Amino acid sequence: MLMNNWYVAAKSHEVNAEKPLIVRMLGQNFVLFRTPENKAVCLTNTCCHRGGSIGRGELDGSGRIACGYHGWKFNPQGQCVEIPALGKDTAIPRRARVDSYPVEEHFDWVWVFLGDLEEKERPAIPTTVFPEYHDKENWRVVSIEFDADVNWARGHENSLDSAHPAFVHSRFGRRSAPKVQIVPLVENAFGGHNATRERVPPKHKQVSKDIARLVSKKRGNTIASTDSYLAGISHRIDITREGNIRQVTVSARTPVDPCNTRIFMHQVRNYLMEEEHDEARLDGIRLAFREDYEAVASVEPKFVPRSMAHQLLVESDQLETAFRRVLFEKVKAGWEIDFEKLERDGRYRHFSIPSPARRKDPKNWVHPVVPTTFPRPD
Ligand code: FES
Ligand SMILES: [Fe+2]
């Protein structure tokens, strides 16, 4: 799992100023809430006092949260401002603080930067790649989330993979036409790549009834344009069928821990725009998810191998290969949490994902920084 990246922590409407929300990401718990000014906040959930769950506590109406164990009160910057058991006039120790992470909201999702990079060094959130989401007149949105007990990188690779639909997807794969078009990969502005390919559409009898009414039996190829992005381990898949029938899916993939992933998805379409068609579209997404899940859950090893040579990636795996290169590069840059070491050492001490405030002041923290598989640059 990589730190120093943006992850979607929650849907915007789940985070409010009344009740804290505890979210697990990268094997750690975080607490999210809003200030009275509606600004979303994300703090480490583990209290620096005696490890209580801050998110079990209460918000005080002025953007501060009182830990659920002994009521230490933290401001949105993660600084403790009150220790009730010591009374009001006691000086607060400098180390009485927890990490507070940068937060942005896009596509009605709360994105949290789990790392300590300066703003300009952070991977860019792909905010500009989904104009359709905001164009309610021409596009109809459905949204869904999934939890899957699979590794995040394995899942992401599956989303980028153009060779599996012919064998895995009953509604849109064409078993008799499995050949993947080899195209030039284009680097995009968000730490990933695009591949735009033509593929033979599924048989007419494969598609759902409502789509079957829209497309002809002898229709032309489908164009599938897939982009992967580093921020949010997200992607965009833009499918154009004959007659400019289009659907665009944007998903983000949050590692809950090494073996569990939460997926946030929006899909927009420019056909069957009425609300009454939403449920059938969601059914199609659920079916595709189950088909993907069964394939991905069965792969071994559960994690992506650490060398290209440990599996036989071929030319049709273009986007997956490009993703592994990006992954390996970030691992070598010291972004990967050493989960095995953390599991061992974390039994006696809480380790925290470093926040940007640690760059300015690396000392005076109770919780040390999580270990990484490669050394981190100073
Ligand atoms: S553990 Fe949080 S206030 Fe004691
Ligand atoms: Fe799939």
How many domains? The number is 2
Under the CATH scheme, the architecture of the largest domain is Alpha-Beta Complex
Backbone CA Rg: 23 Å
N-to-C span: 20 Å
Bound ligand species: FE2/S2 (inorganic) cluster, fe (ii) ion
Give the helices and strands as they follow along the chain.
Answer: EEEEEEEEEEEHEHHEEHEEEEHHHH
CATH topology of the largest domain: Naphthalene 1,2-dioxygenase Alpha Subunit, Chain A, domain 1
Number of helices: 8
Which descriptor suits the 3D outline?
globular
Question: What's the helical proportion of residues?
Answer: 10-25%
Characterize the largest beta sheet: strand count, sense, and whether it forms a barrel: 7 strands, antiparallel
Structure classification: alpha+beta
Q: Largest beta sheet: what is the strand line-up?
A: 12-18-17-16-15-14-13
Can you walk through the features of this model?
The protein is α+β, with helices and mostly antiparallel strands and 378 residues long. The protein folds into 2 domains: 5-121, Rieske [2Fe-2S] iron-sulphur domain (Rieske Iron-sulfur Protein); 131-329, Naphthalene 1,2-dioxygenase Alpha Subunit, Chain A, domain 1 (Alpha-Beta Complex). 18% of the residues lie in helices and 27% in strands. It has 8 helices and 18 strands. Strands 12-18-17-16-15-14-13 form a 7-stranded antiparallel beta sheet, covered by helices on one side. The protein has a 4-stranded antiparallel beta sheet with strand order 2-3-4-9, with no helix packed on it. A hairpin with a 2-residue loop joins β2 (21-25) and β3 (28-34). The longest helix is centred in the last third of the chain and has 20 residues, at 278-297. The model has no long low-confidence stretch (mean pLDDT 96). Fe (ii) ion (FE2) binds at residues 158, 164-165, 168-169, 288, 292.
